[in-house]
Amino acid sequence: MLPCPGLQHLERIFLLGRSVAPGRWVLSSGSGDCSGFSMSFIQVHKDSDFPLQNLPYGVFSTKEEPRHRLGVAIGDQILDLSVIKHLFNGPALAKHQHVFDQPTLNAFMGLGRPAWTEARALLQRLLSAGEPTLRDNTELRRRAFVPQASATMHLPAHIGDYTDFYSSRQHATNVGIMFRGKENALMPNWLHLPVGYHGRASSVVVSGTPIRRPVGQMKPDNDKPPVFGACKRLDIELEMAFFVGPGNKYGEPIPVSKAHEHIFGMVLMNDWSARDIQKWEYVPLGPFLSKSLGTTISPWVVTMEALMPFVLPNPVQDPKPLPYLQDKEPYTFDINLFVAIKGEGMNTPTTICRSNFKGQSYQHHPKNAIYFA
């Protein structure tokens, strides 16, 4: 297969909050955020994506210690949770300290919201400027902190399965025009249910993993037979993905009012797409080879608790969705996103699009016998 030339996957974790100047956004705390803590004893640059209010989780290793381990980002450092696991001694975590010795986040995510909340509160306290436990223990600090520049990031969790939702009306319309023409751009069911399909979990990779240009059948000319070759219309899709924590019993639905208890956090996702292959193969069962080349996610999982200061009222939906999809509580977020491309011969990346996250996709999933583990 041919490599994809001149394209690098570039990302920042999130641009969140309010506008302070053209192109500048800040992560600002909301009511109750950080439990009263606002400053860390770890130096955090004003433009950092990792202030005390964020604290995303990830999996990392170093050259000196190649073992995969859990970490939390603060400034330009990673706090190694395996080193401080003995400090997680609250009621939800005291008997589960072993989860911080695991090579993925799965065990920790599976403990549920009480454990997540307790861990976040402890981490914010330990990293705050006024807390001496880490700040004044030179030996513990030496072992517990790793410069991000010295770390290699890995997939944050073992991904057994994933569903890709078609949840942007603009995107669905644009792709529909590309494949079916303007008159049939948006399929009738799109207005009533969250359209989704199961993706290939084995090809989900962490940011920085090279993506190879796929090959497959294409039909560039309707009057000629299909041809086989390398994709000529490789595309990107800027998406948000969420990780599910506690599962549900097989066949047991999750009501929309309880969905927040299952969602641990979010990552950026690039759903690489071979449009010329997709156009020919997607009827009648959807994409296959055109979506199997790779799905890139960011290494840091931003928790839903960190995002709550940016919650927005749910958008008005027209037509009104069926009752099982209606949520009275606000659960969409002001998350500003952008995509930048740096090609061969370019000194700096060029921003090609900006967007903002809004939407609801999780609730439709577990209505039948779908099992979340």
UniProtKB/TrEMBL annotation:
Catalytic activity of the protein: 4-fumarylacetoacetate + H2O = acetoacetate + fumarate + H(+)
Domain Fumarylacetoacetase N-terminal positions: 53-156
Gene behind this protein: FAH
Domain of life: Eukaryota
Protein family membership: Belongs to the FAH family.
Example GO biological process: L-phenylalanine catabolic process
Annotated catalytic residues: H171 (proton acceptor)
UniProt cross-references to InterPro entries, sorted A to Z: Fumarylacetoacetase (IPR005959), Fumarylacetoacetase-like_C (IPR011234), Fumarylacetoacetase_C_sf (IPR036663), Fumarylacetoacetase_N (IPR015377), Fumarylacetoacetase_N_sf (IPR036462)
Positions of substrate binding: Y166, R180, Q278, Y282
GO molecular function annotations of the record: fumarylacetoacetase activity; metal ion binding
UniProt keywords, alphabetically: Calcium, Hydrolase, Magnesium, Metal-binding, Phenylalanine catabolism, Tyrosine catabolism
EC number: 3.7.1.2
Positions contributing to Ca(2+) binding: D164, E237, E239, D271
UniProt cofactor(s): Mg(2+); Ca(2+)
Keyword Secreted: no
Name of the protein this chain belongs to: Fumarylacetoacetase
The protein's annotated pathway: Amino-acid degradation; L-phenylalanine degradation; acetoacetate and fumarate from L-phenylalanine: step 6/6
Fumarylacetoacetase-like C-terminal domain boundaries: 163-308
Residues annotated to bind Mg(2+): D271, K291, T295
Pfam families tied to this protein: FAA_hydrolase (PF01557), FAA_hydrolase_N (PF09298)
